[in-house]
């Protein structure tokens, strides 16, 4: 039967066998390696989070939520402990609230903001290779308007609020090159031109 295959048929058959072997090969379970190397916070003590909740899920409300976040973070002073960060919030709460409301007003929103410092429940979250498990954490909660929209949160202390800054344009499609080692190998066999 091999003799009856056309000249290009043998490389095609070999390529199909390789694809079948790759498809059947055992794959590592997702997350197993990451979980083994990730640091896990054992207790929420010594942590202060920032939690900003948008008025709604509208595009405008979600965008202003991030502007409020930026205004709050710009006014926070790094402290040496979560207690110092909380003390800063207590001392400067009126200024932080004014900053949030200034952002809302400057962007044409008629609703206000509320700042609350307390203990709130949070889901699992990973920051820089450290897992903060679901649980109750101390947090500065900023509620915009009705507070019925998607939220954003980070860790104020230790300072792990990672803000990507301005939206950056993606490179043009002609600037990107995608390659597949498998396709390169198959092309080398003459399967693909």
Features:
193 residues, alpha/beta, 4-stranded mixed sheet, 3-stranded mixed sheet, signal, Spore_II_R, Stage II sporulation protein R
Structure explained in plain terms:
The chain has 193 residues and is α/β, with parallel strands linked by helices. The protein has a domain at 48-157. The chain is built from five helices and seven strands, in the order ααββααβββββα. The chain has helices spanning 9-24, 32-37, 59-75, 82-106, 181-188, and strands spanning 39-40, 48-53, 113-122, 125-127, 130-132, 135-144, 151-157. Strands 3-6-2-7 form a four-stranded mixed β-sheet. Strands 1-5-4 form a three-stranded mixed β-sheet. β4 and β5 form a beta hairpin. It is elongated and about 75 Å long. The two termini are 25 Å apart.
As laid out across the biggest beta sheet, the strand order is: 3-6-2-7
Q: Specify the structural class.
A: alpha/beta
Task: Tally the beta strands.
Answer: 7
Q: Largest sheet at a glance?
A: 4 strands, mixed
What is the H/E string? Answer: HHEEHHEEEEEH
Low-confidence segments: 27-35, 165-178
Rounded to an integer in angstroms, the radius of gyration calculated over CA atoms is 26 Å
The total of helices stands at 5
Give the helix proportion (percent range).
25-40%
Estimate the strand proportion: 15-25%
Distance between the termini: 25 Å
* Integer average pLDDT: 77
> Looking at the structure, what is the overall shape?
elongated
Organism: Candidatus Aphodomorpha intestinavium
Keywords: Signal
Pfam families: Spore_II_R (PF09551)
InterPro entries: Spore_II_R
